[in-house]
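Convert to structure. Protein one:
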Amino acid sequence: MAALALAHISWAIADNADRPACDDWFIDLFGAETAFEMLVTPETEKFRFDREERLMVIGDTMLIPIAPAGPGAQAGNPLGDMLRRSAGQNRWIGLSLRTADLKAAAAWFTARGFKLHYDPGMEEIYFLIPKWQVLGVRIEVMQGELPNDPRVKPGWQPQRWAEDHPLGIEGLLSIDVSVPSLDAARACFGDAFEWPLLAERDLPGEPAQGAAFLAGDLVVEAICPTSDDSELGAHLRDHPGMCGITFKVRSAAAAADYLKARGYSLIGSTDTRFAIPPEQAQGRLIWFSEHLPEGWPAPHSRIARPEAFPEVKEQA
């Protein structure tokens, strides 16, 4: 398949009153830069926005915490109900992937048996592949640019997060997905999506096995727990799908020292990967590692130049 560019990663916040604190946390701790904030105001009431969200970038990675607002705050609103269902400890909505040609991408996925969903009025902008088809990961495929996205502008310099910020983030190393088996991951990501398999490994210091796939400009690592009693085993049992993201940092020791100096406790190990506990990190697992696993590419971005999908020929 053609390479897709990671547009953004999103998760839900059940109560919009909690969203500003989440945004402020990323701005303060990660130096996140705001690209755009969508708010429900008297001036925007005519648009019937059903959510509020802030588009934030950390290097080449955009994160969007989303909360129901306006009509979405009412029970029965489809978007609001989805956000309330999706909110919770270490639960993520999913990924948005950018394509150069939405119709070609839709034809490619449809030819492989995927059932696509279009929100009314958004047919020329994006389509969705629901979670049940992607091992619990909701995939949005979009065409065009996100509002005020700095990553597609001349002079964008994501390296300042590596060079000037104490965390030293060089890029997004992986998106982690809890899966029932590596066979299921190979069938979904390898066979159906045609994402190349990079490597398989036992995760250092963790009761789990991983299979890494190159999904355009990002790595998706499918992680299968080897213990039902582990936190990953509980995640797979309760709400399979995205279970964390991992940033590549210049120095694990320096990043850990910065976080500890800010008062955070850490889980994992600087020798492999470590994270702020979800209860101190807006309910999500965000890992850091200075190691590039064997067979993986260095983090990079194609956000400004997604490739076109190959033409799907109709069968006679």
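Protein two, convert as well:
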Amino acid sequence: MAVKVSIDMVSMLRSALLQGAGAKYRRLAEALGQAIDRGTIAAGCKLPPHRLLADQLGVTIGTISRSYAELERLGQVVARVGDGTYVRQDGLQRQRDSGFRNVGDEAPALFDMSRNTHIPGQEVHFIAQALHALAQDPRGLQAISGYSAEAGQERHRVAGARWLTQEGLEADPGQVICVNGAQHGLHIALLALLKAGDTLATEHLTYPGLISTARMLGIKLLGLPMDEQGLLPEALDQACRQHPVAALYCTPTLQNPTTAVQSPARRAAVAEVCRRHNLLILEDETHAVLMDRRPAPLAHFAAERTLLISGLSKAVASGLRVGFVHAPAPLVGRLAAALRATCWMATPLPLELTAMWIENGIAERLRQQQIAEIGRRKALVAGVLEALEWRSPQGSPHFWIKVPEPWRASEIEEQLKRQHYLVATAEAFAVGQAAVPQFIRASVCNTTADDRRLLEGFAALAAALGQERGVPRW
């Protein structure tokens, strides 16, 4: 929708430029902020696009961008990636604009099927064992009690390489950077390799954590069309011909939220497009570790340009906040510098516990237990979903469920919330202004061990969707 610049707004801002003092962007920000406070610019109003307002006022686009950024810093406006800047209004912000919700943020009465969290298992027992063993090892304690190299201690990088190694990829410890979880790895990758104003291509529906960190760093996201295998290589190629794309963020295995899994041929095609247009690839395999016998990663097809980002939060223990990034050798130093700028080094204690588990097989044991529990829970609730259209490959911790016409996903979400159940809609994952498909993501990973409650939640979801029986799964 085109946004017109009102004559009154232009006159007000021109006066601010002529009469005020200080940098132009500050004068404009102060004038707009005062107008917002007075109600002259109404709550919920979409501010003019940067270029349009810059042309009207005879200033640079950068001046407008800094003005809007100042207003956002002060909490007066909300910037939506690919959608524009809006005057803040209660209820206006979409879920992705309000940041992450942590476990425990919601009222206890709500049964949460909206998040993929680690299902508690034996990790507490193994943490106690590992801490006890470490307490008996003064030299080991001494080794993790001081500063480490930015990329991590050699032993921890070796363990990370072992965790990342899979069919088609023999990870090199010298190319591993230890991070405080996969989200931290993604953040330092963007911080090190892209700059404000750069364009990052991704799937039209993508990980909300990417949307949040890109917005904070001023990186533009470009959502690309998808099919049942995820990202379309031809759509990426066309986007690169039309936009100055710097990199691709992609989840080729168990894509979040659609659960898509790219075939080896699709991965090769995506890698070839990236090579042709000289794109970096940020490959997220946070959920992929839950799939046994998964296809070779994109890092196999384009090793010279792919950063593989992984963590243990979904498969082993979420609270440890341990992750690893495997990067092309020439980029390791830049990533280590970005890590130093954020936290100086990844925390050695959880890395030491994780390294112990990877070495003695406990990490793999916990991963297999997590896969088995996800499978058990999915088998438990699949019967109540048999009349619905859904996708959920082996290892996926959630179902991706189509909402039948004439219903909209937001209506089903609100209805279930009134019944004290939470689900996620495609809207929370959307990039840009393209039409959002009417789907719901429902996870089996609520931390409760109460199978009855889990069944009740999925039964309520099936009842809300109200489908007739006999519709096949995809």
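The domain at 123-361 is CATH 3.40.640.10 (Aspartate Aminotransferase; domain 2). Residues 94-98, 467-474 have pLDDT under 50 and may be disordered.
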